[in-house]
């Protein structure tokens, strides 16, 4: 089936591609589709699972010949720039992935991949609000401040996420807020206001899912794909992108610079971007691949967004200089 053991660094040979990603339901879905390609091509795909993009970049940097491709979020591209002189990822040859044309034009030029020669857009991921329909009804960031949710809200324990969604709540552009002292302080104040009903902060998706399942939380910051997983388990939850907007953790496919299997990676990516395969993968992991003229199977996904401009994109070159202060402020709010 082409599935390797998570946690073991795998190697590439002429009959194997090595893929590194963040595990969970998403990578399980990718395993299944990639196994179909393996049956056709005769080339297996091994899977390495990591906790986050920082670990992903660290492993690739330490073992550049051991991995062939991955799907980072924006933070990994920033790490590649800051710490590795943009040497970890290869420039994408779009001529080798003709089916990428099936992706909607506006998403092919989304901020994650616009002017970024190393990535092609993969799927939409947003960080909005999940709520228990038997105990809550929310549609905006202001709603989580309502007294009726006292001690029933959980948010992500991430200073950057909290700053980003606080900017979204205020209608601020993150870049402008990061470079304007008054707007920055407004966003910090909004972080504090959104904290008032919080009983705990979560660090991993499985944690907020547990809090919702156990009805400890009526409202949680989270990802729509996970909300759909809860719905499939019979949980009475809904996901909403708040009316003010929210941050996105959308991903892109990249090819590792040191891979000697680039041609095979391109063939696999071209297979994934075949329209039927992209729909199949979206249905499996719940994160929409934004096809041109998308079918209902994609537009009905909780996180489907027609226009990338409707989401809040983090420019890490603006955020990195502020990270220490953001962490300190975030910790002070929780204390």
Compile the SSE list and pairings:
Blueprint: E1 16-21, H1 24-41, E2 44-49, H2 53-62, E3 69-70, H3 74-84, H4 105-108, E4 120-121, E5 126-132, E6 153-156, H5 159-170, H6 174-178, H7 181-195, E7 198-202, H8 205-213, E8 219-223, H9 224-232, E9 237-240, E10 247-248, E11 252-255, H10 262-272, H11 275-285, H12 296-299, H13 316-319, H14 323-334
Parallel strand pairs: 1-2, 1-3, 6-7, 6-8
Antiparallel strand pairs: 3-11, 4-11, 5-8, 5-9, 5-10
- Separation of the first and last Cα atoms: 49 Å
Domain count: the total is 2
Give me the Rg, rounded. Answer: 20 Å
For the record, the CATH architecture of the largest domain stands as 3-Layer(aba) Sandwich
| SSE string | EHEHEHHEEEHHHEHEHEEEHHHHH
Helix content: 40-55%
| Total helical elements | 14
Low-confidence segments: 1-12
Structure report:
It is built from 14 helices and eleven strands. It is an alpha/beta fold. The chain has two domains: 16-124 and 250-304, 3-Layer(aba) Sandwich (D-Maltodextrin-Binding Protein, domain 2); 126-248 and 313-334, Periplasmic binding protein-like II (D-Maltodextrin-Binding Protein, domain 2, 3-Layer(aba) Sandwich). Strands 5, 6, 7, 8, 9 and 10 form a six-stranded mixed beta sheet that branches. The longest helix is centred in the N-terminal third of the chain and has 18 residues, at 24-41.
Give a summary of the structure in a few sentences.
Keywords: Signal. With 335 residues, the chain is α/β, with parallel strands linked by helices.
What characteristics describe this protein?
about 325 residues; six-stranded mixed beta sheet; Family 1 extracellular solute-binding protein; 2 domains; single chain; five-stranded mixed beta sheet; 14 helices; D-Maltodextrin-Binding Protein, domain 2; disordered N terminus; alpha/beta; 11 strands
């Amino acid at each position: 089936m082409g599935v390797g053991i998570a946690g073991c660094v795998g190697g590439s040979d002429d009959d194997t591609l090595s893929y590194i990603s963040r595990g969970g339901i998403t990578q399980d879905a990718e395993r299944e589709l990639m196994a179909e390609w393996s049956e056709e091509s005769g080339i297996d795909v091994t899977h390495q699972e990591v906790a986050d993009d920082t670990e992903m970049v660290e492993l690739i940097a330490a073992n550049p010949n051991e991995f062939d491709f991955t799907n980072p979020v924006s933070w990994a591209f920033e790490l590649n720039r800051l710490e590795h002189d943009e040497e970890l990822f290869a420039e994408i040859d779009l001529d080798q992935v003709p089916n990428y044309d099936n992706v909607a034009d506006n998403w092919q030029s989304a901020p994650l991949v616009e002017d970024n020669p190393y990535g092609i857009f993969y799927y939409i991921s947003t960080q909005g609000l999940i709520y228990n329909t038997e105990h809550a009804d929310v549609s905006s960031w202001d709603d989580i401040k309502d007294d009726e949710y006292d001690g029933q809200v959980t948010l992500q324990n991430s200073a950057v996420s909290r700053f980003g969604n606080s900017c979204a709540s205020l209608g601020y552009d993150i870049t402008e807020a990061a470079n304007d002292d008054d707007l920055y302080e407004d966003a910090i104040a909004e972080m504090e206001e959104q904290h008032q009903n919080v009983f705990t902060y979560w660090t991993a998706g499985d944690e907020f899912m547990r809090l919702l399942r156990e009805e400890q939380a009526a409202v949680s910051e989270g990802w729509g794909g996970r909300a759909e997983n809860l719905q499939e388990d019979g949980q009475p939850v809904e996901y909403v992108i708040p009316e003010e907007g929210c941050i996105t953790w959308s991903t892109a496919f990249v090819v590792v610079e040191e891979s000697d299997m680039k041609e095979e990676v391109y063939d696999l990516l071209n297979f994934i971007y075949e329209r039927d395969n992209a729909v199949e993968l979206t249905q499996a992991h719940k994160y929409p691949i934004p096809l041109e003229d998308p079918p209902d199977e994609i537009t009905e996904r909780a996180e489907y967004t027609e226009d990338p401009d409707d989401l809040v994109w983090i420019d890490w070159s603006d955020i990195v200089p502020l990270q220490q202060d953001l962490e300190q402020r975030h910790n002070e709010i929780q204390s």
